[in-house]
Structures are given as C-alpha cells and as structure tokens.
Amino acid sequence: MRNTRFLCRRISIWIILVLQIVLITSYFLLQNESGHNLKSNITFNTSLGEVAIRNKLTYHTFGNRITLASIESSRLYVDLNTSLCYKHGSDLEVMGRSKNVVWKCKCLSGWHGNDCSQPEVIWRALLAHRKSVQLKGPRKYLRRIIYLLEVDEFAETSTEIRVNDLNSTVDLFVLYENQRSNYFARKISKFLKEFHSKILYLRLTNVKDVWKIVKSSLTNLQDDDIILVSGPSDYPNGAALQYIKLYDKWPQPFRFRLRWSVYGFFWQHPSKTALKGGACTISYLYETLQENVTLLYNKTADGMILGDLNHFGGWFCEYCYDSLQIIKFLNANPSLSMISFNSANLKKIDNEYVEDLIENGIYLDGKTELLRTRRYRESYFAPIFVTNSSWKYDWLLINLYSKMDYY
C-alpha cells in the first residue's frame, strides 16, 4: 500500500512537470509568432524618413528658401536734438553729461563724419581715393551682406572666428565645400549651431556654381544688397562692412588691404599688407561682372581700397595652424603657398623645423624675417572676437613656441 502511494505521488509530480514544460513552450511559441506578425506589419517610408531628417536641420541647405531680414538703420542711431548720431561711433556718455544743449555729435577716437559713422579705415580710404566721393545716406533700411566662404578642414577655426566676429554685420553666411571633401558635412549639424539661421551650407561638384545656387535660394534679393568674397584665411573689418550697409554712392568694387600676419597675430610679414577679397552690390555683379563672383578677386580692378599700411581693412592670417597642420596644409595645397619652394629645402620641413620657424619668426622659405607685433600697443592687432576670446585663441595671440613670453 505504501509503495502504491509513493508511486502515485511520483506519477503526479511527473505529470505536473510535463504540464509546466508544455505551458512554458507554448508561451514562447506564441510570443515568437506574435513578434513575427508585428514585424511583418511594420514598414518604413524612406522618403518620409529623409523628409523628417531634412526638417530637423537647423541650418539652410539645397532646396531651402531663404528670406533676408529688412532692418531699419534708425536702430543704430540716437537722435539728439537736431543731430542723428551713430551709436557705436559717438561718445554718448560725454554728450549726455554736457550741461549745454548738444547740437553736434561728438565722435569717439577713431571715428569720423558728422554722424560719427565713419571708422578710421573708411575715412582714410575716402581721403586716399583719387576721385571725390559724394556718399549719400544713411539709408532707411540697411543693405544686406551675403558672405561666400569656401570651407575645408583647414578653415574650421577661421570660419568660427569670422562668423562670430561678423554675425551682427553679415546677413547670410554661405559655407560651401567641394564635393570631394566631407569635413564640414560631418560636423555642420553641431558647428556654430547658434548661428544656423544665418548659415547656408552647400556641397558642390563645381564650386563655380555657388552663386547660381545662392541666388535661387533667396526670395527677396535686391539690387543694392552686397556680395562679399574672401579667402579662407581672410578676416574682413566688420566696422568697414557696417558702414557700406548704411550709405550709397561708394565706388565699386571695393577690396581689402589686410594686415599680413603669419603663424598667428604675433608675427607680421615684412610686406605688412596683402590685397585680398572684394565686394560689390548685386546690380554691379550683374551688369559689370556678368555674375562671375571670381572677378571680385581681381587686384587690378577699379574701385576703392579699404585699408592702408597702418589702418587695415582686416587681417590675412597665413599658416595660422599648429606645426603639424601647417605641414599637412603644405602637402595638400602646394600650389597655394606664397613662397618660392625652389629656394627652400623641402626635405627639411618637418614638425621640429616648423616649430623652430614659428619660435624665431622666420617665414617658411627659411630666410625671410618676420616682424614682431605688440598685442597691447596696436589697435589692429587681431579681430575683436579673437582678442575678446583669448582663453580660446591664445595660440593665435601668443607665440607658444617661444621660450620667453614677450607678450
């Protein structure tokens, strides 16, 4: 009897165990079948996905329609009695403290004109121009500036500086990259993101097509808007650009005489300046240049030159990279160098050699001595944004390769 009960218990346990196995197996089979059916019912619309990604872009690109803002020039002026004074060029503090009625604008040092809107570089350019210039203005609405910048891996820092430095002056930054390069394509989504509303990024098979694409993207382009071009190492003077937005009847095109810095703003080439870049109105681009923006680089064209040997229309910072990037740049762009490589022993241009050149202020030809600049004594030492961000761009302001800090 006892054996019979024991046997029944064993049989019951086995039955329960088998039932549990069956239930567990059935559960997993049903789950797999349900997941398979769910997966088979899900499809992805690739085109809609692409549209969604496109809609998430915060910068402008191919196919976008861009409307340039119309800004009244009055916001840049203050009306004092019968005088209209340019805010950035007028000594408003002194004028406000005056006990007498102020009838004229009092200009800050480096500013000229009845309304104090002419920065030193513009004032001197007008004096030096061979013909009398009768400017008209200020305009009711500011002209818009469209700045074309060709970018690649060597232009990352210069692009960052220019966009920050000229953001309040330039209305649209066009960053265009050769199709063979994808350096900016990989980082543009996070690069200068706070300025994306004013950035049009293009990858082009032929960079000569850039203006055709830009023109088709703008909904309200006007004949008196300004097209600006410059090299990847050029930094136009923002104060000068702001002035031409305010006034009419200036000679076209105008070009920039830039302070020629080498390795950083702490060294200056003995030639002191370089004539670079250019700008003109859209009407001049159509009627005289036949929409060929490359003609703005023509150094022999008539027009007005902004800058002289002591008051610069901007900065040209040549080879302003670290030593390893300089070598990489030379290998990638041998034809763009401004030195005669026939007179230099290229075999000795390595990292140690370049560091020695930077430290001692010798040009890449190995013989031209550069001029030392003085950061705290010169008003045109570097772009304002760079000097105000010295914590980030110290390597452009201080010769870090020097064994002694002269600055």
TrEMBL record:
<dbReference type="InterPro" id="IPR006813">
    <property type="entry name" value="Glyco_trans_17"/>
</dbReference>
<dbReference type="GO" id="GO:0003830">
    <property type="term" value="F:beta-1,4-mannosylglycoprotein 4-beta-N-acetylglucosaminyltransferase activity"/>
</dbReference>
<dbReference type="GO" id="GO:0016020">
    <property type="term" value="C:membrane"/>
</dbReference>
<keyword id="KW-1133">Transmembrane helix</keyword>
<dbReference type="GO" id="GO:0006044">
    <property type="term" value="P:N-acetylglucosamine metabolic process"/>
</dbReference>
<keyword id="KW-0812">Transmembrane</keyword>
<keyword id="KW-0472">Membrane</keyword>
<feature type="transmembrane region" description="Helical">
    <location>
        <begin position="12"/>
        <end position="30"/>
    </location>
</feature>
<protein>
    <recommendedName>
        <fullName>Beta-1,4-mannosyl-glycoprotein 4-beta-N-acetylglucosaminyltransferase</fullName>
    </recommendedName>
</protein>
